């Protein structure tokens, strides 16, 4: 640890007791965790509804899954985390005018990013999906993909960005209200459009777009009325410095979210050689892994705001203690999911598909991935804390380790070691474990604070 770091920590009071920090985390995490729970239920229902459309539709849905999750992760957790971090640090340093001006810059980023998602995935669904899952899965999902991203990408980005503005101001409960209603409505609306309205898989895409449009309108009204604790300033010339406040964290975090989903895409592309049933089965396993993100997001969003405030005040000792308190809390939540499914992978697989071949392969995948979810929960929490601190080097290294182990190591285990599909599943689990371990190793004195990030 450098002498500068020691002096910075010594100049401030001792950090609050762990119990006090835990109460702060829980107070902010509770409303967001409620939304996360509703999102998990909605996503499980979506998996079940897709399976009811047949194996080809389930495979198509599985191919779209990484892109749909990337949209949510980037808008809410990655670039959204950049928004939370920038606003929390500005408020922590007493720069309320800067926080107000950041809203316009966050919305401009959301419009640009949502447009890119819509152009790529609504404009060229068969080309993109065919590369990942093959022609059959791409054809089954093309219209679903076009509707989901063509109508829903921009509203989802706006809704999640404005929710991040509220979280940056410490108003997590307000941010949760509109999103909670959206996820409550989504499963029933998706079922109505998919089955009674006979739209099939595209009905899920339309349902998503409808609820995100409603959420974006509700969030806009809340923020415009000063719900974040300040009135947004929209009549000003955009500033490169303020874009950098968001993008310095948000771009790195978005790249990490892309790498995480690219890992799933690369593994899916390799698993496709084993047939449509294997793709559908791996989709079920991947959903289990991605379900950890909304479960941890409640704690993670609280960590981004609390760590950002502490860093804005120059209190790095409190920032580190807050990060580790949240990490142990998230580890406990992840264990509550990962441990039970590790002991009953067959039951989980059969809950999502009636196809015996798909269920058998999915159970094998879940048996490998389930135990690794425990460390993944802690790693994800520390990733969100790193966004608040503006210290993203550790999560970057962790993400690169993960993709190399999962994709490259999977190929070696499957073909060189002769493990076949099980080799890919083992490599995915090892990659998840490495991600958690490397991220955890980066949250320590000397790295937090370490050198100031460039602006």
Structural account:
Helices cover 84% and strands 0% of the residues. Helix 9 packs parallel to helix 14. The longest helix is centred in the N-terminal third of the chain and has 38 residues. It contains 15 helices and no strands. It has 455 residues and is an all-alpha fold.
Q: Please state the CA-atom Rg, rounded to the nearest Å.
A: 21 Å
The number of helical elements comes to 15
Tell me the quaternary state.
Answer: single chain
- Percent range for β-strand residues: under 5%
Shape: globular
Helix content: over 70%
Biggest β-sheet, characterized? none
Class from secondary-structure proportions: mainly alpha
Strand and helix order: HHHHHHHHHHHHHHH
In whole angstroms, the N-to-C terminal distance is: 23 Å
Q: Please mark out the parts with pLDDT under 50 across 5 or more consecutive residues, or reply none.
A: 1-10
Q: What is the typical, i.e. mean, pLDDT?
A: 86
Please report the total strand number as a whole number: 0
């Amino acid at each position: 640890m450098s002498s500068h770091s020691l002096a910075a920590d010594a100049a401030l009071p001792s950090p609050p007791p762990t119990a006090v920090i835990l109460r702060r985390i829980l107070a902010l995490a509770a409303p967001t965790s409620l939304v996360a729970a509703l999102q998990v239920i909605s996503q499980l229902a979506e998996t079940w509804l897709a399976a009811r459309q047949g194996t080809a539709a389930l495979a198509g849905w599985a191919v779209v899954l990484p892109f749909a999750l990337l949209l949510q992760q980037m808008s809410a957790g990655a670039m959204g985390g950049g928004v939370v971090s920038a606003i929390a640090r500005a408020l922590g340093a007493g720069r309320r005018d800067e926080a107000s001006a950041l809203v316009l810059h966050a919305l401009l980023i959301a419009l640009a990013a949502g447009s890119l998602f819509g152009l790529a995935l609504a404009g060229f669904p068969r080309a993109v999906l065919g590369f990942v899952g093959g022609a059959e899965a791409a054809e089954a999902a093309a219209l679903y993909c076009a509707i989901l991203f063509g109508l829903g990408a921009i509203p989802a980005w706006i809704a999640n960005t404005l929710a991040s503005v509220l979280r940056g101001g410490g108003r997590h409960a307000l941010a949760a209200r509109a999103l909670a209603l959206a996820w409550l409505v989504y499963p029933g609306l998706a079922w109505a459009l998919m089955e009674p309205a006979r739209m099939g898989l595209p009905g899920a895409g339309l349902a998503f777009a409808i609820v995100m449009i409603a959420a974006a309108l509700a969030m806009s009204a809340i923020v415009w009325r000063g719900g974040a604790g300040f009135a947004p300033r929209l009549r000003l010339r955009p500033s490169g410095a303020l874009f950098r406040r968001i993008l310095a964290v948000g771009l790195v975090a978005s790249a990490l979210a892309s790498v995480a989903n690219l890992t799933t895409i690369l593994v899916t592309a390799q698993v496709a050689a084993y047939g449509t049933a294997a793709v559908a089965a791996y989709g079920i396993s991947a959903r289990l892994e991605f379900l950890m993100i909304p479960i941890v997001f409640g704690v993670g969003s609280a960590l981004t705001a609390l760590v950002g405030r502490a860093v804005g005040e120059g209190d790095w000792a409190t920032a580190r203690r807050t990060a580790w308190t949240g990490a142990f809390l998230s580890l406990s939540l992840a264990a509550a999911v990962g441990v039970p499914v590790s002991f009953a992978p067959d039951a989980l697989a059969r809950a999502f598909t009636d196809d015996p071949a798909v269920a058998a392969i999915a159970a094998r995948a879940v048996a490998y991935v389930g135990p690794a979810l425990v460390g993944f929960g802690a790693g994800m929490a520390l990733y969100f804390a790193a966004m608040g601190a503006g210290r993203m080097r550790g999560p970057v290294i962790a993400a690169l380790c993960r993709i190399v182990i999962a994709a490259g190591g999977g190929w070696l285990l499957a073909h060189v070691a002769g493990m076949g599909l099980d080799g890919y599943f083992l490599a995915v689990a090892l990659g998840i474990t490495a991600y958690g371990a490397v991220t955890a190793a980066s949250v320590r004195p000397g790295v937090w604070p370490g050198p100031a990030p460039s602006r």
